[in-house]
Amino acid sequence: MQNTQLFRPVRALVAVMACVILPVGYSVAEQIGPVHPIVEPDMLDEIQKTLKEKEKSGELARLQKESIERAKKSIERPKPVTGLTRAERNRSFYYDPSFKVPKTVTDSEGRVVAEAGKIVNPLDYVNMSQYMLFIDGTDPLQVAKADALHAHYTGNIKTILTNGAVLELSRQRGRQIYFDQGGTLVRKLGITKVPSLVSQEGKRLRIDELEIRP
User: Fold this and answer.
1) CA-only gyration radius of the chain, Å
2) What is the pLDDT of residues 146-167, one digit of tens each?
3) Cis preceding-peptide flag for 195 (omega within 30 of 0)
4) How far apart are CA 214 and CA 139, in angstroms?
5) Beta pairing, strands 85-86 & 193-194
6) Calpha distance 199→205 (Å, rounded)
7) Is-above-0.70 flag for pTM?
8) Domains and CATH numbers, the chain
9) CB 189 within 8 A of CB 205
10) In which order are the strands placed within the sheet that holds 131-136?
11) Do 137 and 161 touch, CB atoms closer than 8 A?
12) How far, in Å, are 15, 23, 24, 27 from residue 30 at the CA level?
């Protein structure tokens, strides 16, 4: 009711202006131009129509099946990490995880935890509890090496694939095996050869490339 009362003066003003400005016999609509109905289809209606057509033709079911198959393959066998080769000799190097704090960090009560510009080493606060072993899961010799090291360290080791069927290997071995998606870890640690065993040594991480020969 309020909206109707509000717009009555406006409509009256428009009518008065039309009478003053336009010659007798003309209407506002004639002055502006011919009026046509809006024929543009509703976007949601068009989407629904397209989906129904694809469902009726069976194309929608085919697309859904292909999408599920791609997802399953991606989970079963993720995209291999590129740029890695098999280690042909033993070699060790170190990685220092220290970094410069870019911005002052405070806790929930506003107390400063780390000031901007300060050098922080995560190993000052937490220790690496397990070994990490990076291998190519499609190489039987590297898989055998992982089995031997798993037994040697009595399970205190995480096997991380850079290539291969991670779920199948996990089922075969009866233990959780991981995958370095996108090569995030090997790039961070500077690993270029596998197998590589990562362990903590003091305030650094030690990376041992393990020789593999046929």
Assistant:
1) 34
2) 999 999 999 999 999 999 999 9
3) yes
4) 10
5) parallel
6) 6
7) no
8) 85-97+127-209 (3.40.30.10)
9) yes
10) 91-95, 204-209, 196-201, 131-136, 157-163, 178-179
11) yes
12) 14, 11, 12, 5
